[in-house]
Amino acid sequence: MPGKVNPTQCEAMTMVCAQVMGNHVTVTIAGASGHFELNVFKPVLAKNLLHSIRLLADAMVSFEDHCISGVQANEERISKLLTESLMLVTCLNSKIGYDMASKVAKNAHKKGLTLKESCLELQALTGEEVSAKSPIAANRMILTSDSLIP
């Protein structure tokens, strides 16, 4: 297909992770199989541990070089998706109640509205309530390191 980009690096990383998980099972069983301070499974334990370290190190270098190097966040798009997210309806529960918040979300989804537009349409909140200090704000739902400092 013209223009198709194969996700080879992501697939390769997933395969490496599957192998490392298998190695982890082997290491776990080998570690649990030692008796009386003598573990005859140390060679397989060490081999799988070192194998996992090498696999992860090589895969991360390749993943960085061929996949994530140069990736830039589209902050404008992220902000738009965040501010228009219907999940923000949970902010409204304490203000307008669960039932009305549910109606607001369903109306917004059905008509392709933002939560603020839906609130106004259903008269769940006034224009003043949804403007200045809107309860519909993602930044009010998250804790930042600044908010943890007294």
Automatic annotation (TrEMBL):
For molecular function, the Gene Ontology terms on record are: fumarate hydratase activity
Provide the Gene Ontology terms for cellular component.
mitochondrion
All copies of the Fumarate lyase N-terminal domain together span 1-22
The UniProt record lists the Fumarase C C-terminal domain at 88-130
* GO biological-process terms attached to the record: fumarate metabolic process; malate metabolic process; tricarboxylic acid cycle
- From the Swiss-Prot or TrEMBL record, give the protein name: Uncharacterized protein
